[in-house]
Write a sequence for this structure.
DNA sequence: GGCTGAATGTTATGTTATGTCATTCCTCCG
DNA sequence: CGGAGGAATGACATAACATAACATTCAGCC
């Protein structure tokens, strides 16, 4: 198998192949659209862009592709804004840790683990089997803070 | 002012009063409904229950009351299930930390702080001003684990 | 009495997401 | 070759969640 590629779309294709999955043209295009937005983008925004390129597109077309990408860890769903954002480190799936600016809508994914075992401790105490953790931090980003407090 | 009451609904009324707000009959009833569900409940489920009691009820009626309760910290919105759950410690507003069972739908709110400063550190590094933090842990609860692994 | 503001009612619509069945296309196997 | 089977997509309909905008009610107050 070829070496891990530099381009993010090619990386995505490589990752899918490595798992016996296929980044079809449609999925690839959806991924490109999500990637091009530098912030969480709504499913219907993706839909509109697809529709502009190829005529009428129905919601399931978009949701199926997004679900696939989320399933592969290539894209994260951002619950607090009902949007989707490209993962910044998709090689291995992980729970997203996002800082989301309420002012400009941008989001930053943080790779470094921001949990310090307390969640796992608590889960242990509750005898709760963790499957995933949603962590979304809301506030104002650096740029927006500068903009309004000059 | 009277002492802090034992009943959760009375507590809620007391908290609202202390802030110059009013827990009106409608809001009180919505709070009771959310409280009675021992898990996150959807806005439209609340709506159905209200409608059963008082005839036609429109969505804004319910959403306004829920928004008020969320604003007062009496109820948390659970993003990952589009639902609302009564806060277990409403006296002072806080970000919710929830363990949600994907099997039975129950949720448990944890009062103990599960963050260890890493999020704040990261925010500092990003010059990001935190306004709120969404933390929702998904998995299987104790009861459901017992049920399927006897 | 009439002004005011908070709350609620009412109508309509916007936004997000999914269920279901049909169609296409590729692959594998005989 | 030809058909079975599976993955992906297309197409249609509808469900589920949420809000905008304006009307009405009602209590408190001058």
């Amino acid at each position: 198998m070829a070496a891990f590629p530099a381009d993010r779309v090619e990386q995505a294709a490589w990752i899918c192949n490595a798992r016996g999955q296929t980044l079809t043209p449609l999925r690839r295009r959806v991924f490109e659209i999500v990637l091009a937005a530098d912030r969480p983008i709504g499913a219907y925004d993706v839909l509109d862009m697809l529709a502009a390129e190829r005529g009428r597109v129905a919601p399931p077309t978009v949701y199926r592709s997004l679900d696939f990408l989320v399933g592969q860890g290539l894209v994260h769903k951002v619950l607090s804004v009902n949007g989707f954002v490209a993962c910044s480190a998709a090689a291995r799936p992980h729970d997203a840790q996002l800082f989301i600016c309420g002012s400009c809508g941008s989001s930053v994914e943080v790779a470094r683990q921001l949990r310090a075992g307390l969640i796992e401790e608590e889960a242990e105490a509750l005898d709760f089997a963790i499957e995933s953790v949603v962590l979304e931090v809301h506030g104002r980003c650096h740029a927006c803070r500068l903009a309004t407090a000059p």
Summary: The helical segments of chain A are 8-18, 25-36, 43-54, 59-71, 118-126, 142-148. Chain A has a mean pLDDT of 94. The interface with chain B takes residues 79-80, 99, 101-102, 108, 110, 112-119, 122-123, 126-142, 145 of chain A (CB under 8 Å). DSSP finds six helices and five strands in chain A.
